[in-house]
């Protein structure tokens, strides 16, 4: 099943953006909150949040999981564990559009504080889009149990699948999302992810820090927090 979702965001998750900025339980002063309101308003005025997804049957392999009907193999122990017991997977891609990148670059040239705020607000916004995809998939596949999202680059799932991942979804044509030679998504405020669908209840597996290949250098972990994955 193919899906396209154009998301209307009336507000951005400022509490999540503040957590990304390191505030945690600390309440920022009025100046910071006012600047954040300004950045939110600017972003909401230009972004075009959207997402696409496709549901595939999957087949476990010795070194990963094959996405049936494509040449894509999701390789690695972490993704194999993540999709254990699943019979299908959802490949999804979400983006805020190039306008978000332009706002951040414009702030970078004039005000780094606002640039950082806009950057983290945009990151939170992409996750809001993905949450909407989660909800839509859950509604369309009520008979299945659903895993959390797992993106290329988590654990040992390599980033170098980004190009093929986007090709399968026709993301370049449908939502203007591409990957560079270094497997960086452009527009930058974008996400690709895999969701597993199982016909039986899924026990909670390794999630977040345990599966992340950035866990040894993660600034969230160093201050006793987590990124929310």
From TrEMBL:
This is Vitamin B12 dependent methionine synthase, activation domain protein. One of its GO terms (molecular function) is methionine synthase activity. SUPFAM superfamilies: Methionine synthase activation domain-like. InterPro entries: S-AdoMet-dep_Met_synth_prd, VitB12-dep_Met_synth_activ_dom, VitB12-dep_Met_synth_activ_sf. It comes from the Bacteria. Residues 92-195 form the AdoMet activation domain.
């Amino acid at each position: 099943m193919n899906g396209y979702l154009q998301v209307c965001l009336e507000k951005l998750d400022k509490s999540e953006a503040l957590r990304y900025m390191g505030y945690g339980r600390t309440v920022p002063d009025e100046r910071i909150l006012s600047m954040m309101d300004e950045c939110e308003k600017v972003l909401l005025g230009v972004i075009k949040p959207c997402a696409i997804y496709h549901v595939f049957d999957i087949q476990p392999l010795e070194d990963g999981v094959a996405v049936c009907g494509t040449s894509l193999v999701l390789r690695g122990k972490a993704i194999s564990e993540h999709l254990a017991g699943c019979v299908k997977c959802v490949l999804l891609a979400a983006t805020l559009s190039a306008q978000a990148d332009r706002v951040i670059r414009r702030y970078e040239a004039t005000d780094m504080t606002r640039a950082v705020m806009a950057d983290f607000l945009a990151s939170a916004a992409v996750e809001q889009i993905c949450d909407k995809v989660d909800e839509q998939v859950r509604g369309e596949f009520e008979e299945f149990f659903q895993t959390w999202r797992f993106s290329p680059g988590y654990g040992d799932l390599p980033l170098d699948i980004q190009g093929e991942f986007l090709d399968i979804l026709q993301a370049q044509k449908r939502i203007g999302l591409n990957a560079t030679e270094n497997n960086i998504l452009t527009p930058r405020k974008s996400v690709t992810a895999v969701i597993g669908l199982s016909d039986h209840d899924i026990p909670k597996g390794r999630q977040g820090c345990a599966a992340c290949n950035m866990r040894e250098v993660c600034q969230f972990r160093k201050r006793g927090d987590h990124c929310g994955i």
